[in-house]
Automatic annotation (TrEMBL):
Highest taxon of source: Eukaryota
InterPro entries in alphabetical order: FAD-dep_OxRdtase (IPR006076), FAD/NAD-bd_sf (IPR036188)
Region of interest: Disordered: 21-61
Molecular-function annotations in GO: sarcosine dehydrogenase activity
Gene Ontology CC, one term: mitochondrial matrix
Domain FAD dependent oxidoreductase: 69-427
Any GO BP: sarcosine catabolic process
Organism (species): Prolemur simus (Greater bamboo lemur)
Entry protein name: Sarcosine dehydrogenase
Pfam families: DAO
PANTHER family in the cross-refs: SARCOSINE DEHYDROGENASE, MITOCHONDRIAL, SARCOSINE DEHYDROGENASE-RELATED
């Protein structure tokens, strides 16, 4: 097996080299075909489902003729939105998933949940997600969501970053989030394998953790259907019907699928990477782009058990505990765009481009030096949707009444899903969200700036 350091050296010497090809690593599945074998950082997955080729192509249940709300997309946001609509008493809510739940992006997510972000609204959104996945769903359904509370550690390698984390700690106190600023020596005592020589300090949040996306979405679907909602899998959406009312406003009237249509006044676009395609069906431009987003899973590391998850914002790398190993990833500085988003893509992965991933290897080895000699067990490179300002897209599209967005979560859909699903459900039922969601509102983008070809020119 290749070690991270060897991958770094060889990738630098041979730009097109891949350890999957040169050192016998199992190659990841290509984008062209789905995979039933998934190297993901959790034990409970959808691997026990039928082979995709054996799954019946018809819908998992008959389509209703009408619905008060139709949610499109069975990932984190779609399931959370359906669940919260049901909790608000919306009868006749339906979720349509073209394949199976989590099959697009959600299934391969790392599932990290940090409780602190610079925005007070986001702290509240994260707190609600944590309540749902760590307690409420299991109490309602008896199903375990895969929640693991091992804590989180933010790295400060300069004075400015440490000052930011001190402000985050103060913000957390106002919202009941326990956190502590640690010295380098205290950090070393907490995480003995960490290099602290270049640190000014860290922010430790003991109640951060991780979730299992498959377990969470299964529990959400169970809880929603128990309240009268319907989840229909294997049912691709093919069109959205609209009409113009007497005042000249365009309104949603129905959702068309390969297996029939559903009359509805409200559609929620939670299709993730495919949200732009769903938007085009309704004449709505959705300002997001699809990119390759990756992490690698290491071999066993002695002494890593029970360590907190690590986030180094300056190095743009995270280290997620996975039993006795680590998942290593981060935001790519020079990402690869998925130019032609396939509507047949499900439970699939791309080949990892090691030229792009090199920056994460460097940051990870610097922070945890034992990784230099640790083997790479598997690679996970899948699609993710990103927006120009790194904020989600939510709310009613200004050009079409009854067409709501819940997409573009920039790889944070699991951790923000509970809070945003609750706000989106409130938005639909009561006409506005409970919290100040202006920074997420789709109306922040003028329609002249929603062409996806322009997004690549907008700085992050």
């Amino acid at each position: 097996m290749a070690s991270l350091s060897r991958a770094l050296r060889v990738a630098a010497a041979c730009p097109r080299w891949s350890p999957a090809r040169g050192l016998g690593l199992r190659p990841p599945t290509r984008a062209a075909s789905p995979t039933a074998e998934k190297s993901v950082p959790y034990q409970q997955t959808l691997k026990d489902a039928q082979d995709p080729s054996a799954v019946a192509r018809g819908p998992s249940r008959p389509l209703p003729s009408t619905a008060n709300v139709v949610v499109i997309g069975g990932g984190s946001l779609g399931c959370q939105t359906l669940y919260h609509l049901a909790k608000l008493g919306v009868s006749g809510a339906v979720l349509l998933e073209r394949e199976r739940l989590t099959s697009g992006t959600t299934w391969h997510t790392a599932g990290l949940l940090w409780q602190l972000r610079p925005s007070d609204v986001e702290v509240e959104l994260l707190a609600h997600t944590r309540r749902v996945v760590s307690r409420e769903l299991e109490e309602e359904t008896g199903l375990h969501t895969g929640w693991i509370q091992n804590g989180g550690l933010f790295i400060a390698s300069n004075r400015q970053r440490l000052d930011e984390y001190k402000r985050l700690m103060s913000l957390g106190k106002a919202y009941g989030v326990e956190s502590h600023v640690l010295s380098p020596a205290e950090t070393k005592a907490l995480y003995p394998l960490m290099n602290v020589d270049d640190l000014y300090g860290t922010l430790h949040v003991p109640h951060d953790g991780t979730v299992d996306p498959a377990g969470t979405c299964t529990a959400l679907a169970r809880a929603a259907t128990a309240r009268g909602a319907q989840v229909i899998e294997n049912c691709p959406v093919t069109g959205i019907r609209v009409r113009t009312d007497d005042f000249g406003a365009r309104r949603v009237t129905a959702v068309e699928t390969e297996h029939g249509s559903i009359q509805t006044p409200c559609v929620v676009n939670c299709a993730g990477v495919w949200a732009s395609a769903v938007g085009r069906m309704a004449g709505v431009k959705v300002p997001l782009v699809a990119m390759h987003h990756a992490y690698v899973v290491t071999e066993r590391i002695e002494g890593i058990q029970n360590m907190p998850n690590v986030r180094d914002h300056d190095a743009s790398v995270y280290l997620r505990l996975q039993g006795d190993a680590l998942s290593v990833g981060g935001y790519e500085a020079n990402p690869i765009f998925w130019e032609e988003v396939s509507d047949k893509f499900a439970f699939g992965l791309f080949d990892l481009d090691w030229d792009v991933f090199t920056q994460h290897i460097e940051g990870a080895i610097n922070r945890v030096p034992v990784l230099e000699k640790t083997g790479i067990k598997s690679t996970v490179c899948g699609p993710e949707s990103f927006t120009p300002d790194h904020k989600p897209l939510m709310g009613e599209a200004p050009e079409l009444r009854g067409f709501f967005l819940g997409c573009g979560f920039n790889s944070a859909g699991m951790m923000l899903g509970g809070g945003c699903g609750q706000e989106l459900a409130h938005w639909i039922v009561h006409g506005r969200p409970e919290k100040d969601m202006h920074s997420y509102d789709i109306r922040r983008f003028h329609q002249s700036l929603t062409d996806n070809q322009l997004l690549r020119r907008v700085p992050p």
